[in-house]
Design a protein that fits this description.
single chain; mainly alpha; 2 domains; globular
Length: 200
């Protein structure tokens, strides 16, 4: 009587699906983060080059930078890096700047009156405090422009990355980072927060 044996088939043990997924994702995530860092560094250097190339920094220039920022925020980047909050800020700034007349942009100090801020806010269906925020951001960037120009004129190093800029801020403590009316009341944590929020 002949006996037939079922051939033994080597069993392939599949790896844990979650481990396989994580293993596949890690290189991808790392690559995307590296690309984001490279893009952020290049964008920062482009901004520094832009500021140094301007003799003055007007509200027209500020509006131009807002539009430039919106242009850089593609749908793909939003899906990958989730920067929709920043885009909403830029969109609000664009609306407010678009509602300003040219003569108001030529003399932004005239925009600080409550009536004009209220008029602009109502036009774009936002709050007067949003107009105030845009003006404060403009004056801060105008001071930053002067800060860079002065460093260049003195032959001092120009920051090549945000980290270098933050280090310069910690050492030099430029006055424009802290609103004048709050200088005495700001603690160390608030100053650090203001520094991090710079160039939003």
């Amino acid at each position: 009587m002949m006996m037939f044996f079922k051939p033994q088939v080597a069993r392939l043990v599949a790896p844990n699906p979650m481990m396989a997924l994580m293993g596949a994702r890690r290189p991808f995530v790392k690559t995307m983060e590296e690309r984001k860092e490279e893009n952020d560094k290049k964008a920062f250097q482009d901004d520094i080059k832009y500021f140094l190339g301007k003799e003055t920094f007007s509200m027209h220039d500020f509006h131009e930078r807002v539009l430039h920022g919106l242009k850089q925020k593609s749908t793909f980047r939003l899906m990958v890096w989730g920067e929709d909050a920043e885009v909403k800020v830029l969109e609000g700034q664009n609306k407010i700047c678009s509602a300003m007349y040219d003569d108001e942009k030529n003399d932004p100090k005239g925009l600080v009156t409550p009536d004009i801020k209220k008029e602009i806010a109502e036009t774009v269906q936002m709050e007067p405090k949003d107009v105030t925020d845009v003006l404060q951001k403009y004056f801060q960037l105008m001071a930053f422009h002067n800060y860079l120009k002065q460093k260049k004129n003195r032959g001092e190093p120009i920051p090549e990355s945000r980290d270098e800029l933050m280090q310069m801020y910690r050492v030099e403590k430029p006055a424009f980072l802290i609103p004048r009316q709050h200088k005495k009341s700001y603690n160390r944590a608030q100053i650090r927060y203001t520094m991090r929020r710079h160039h939003t």
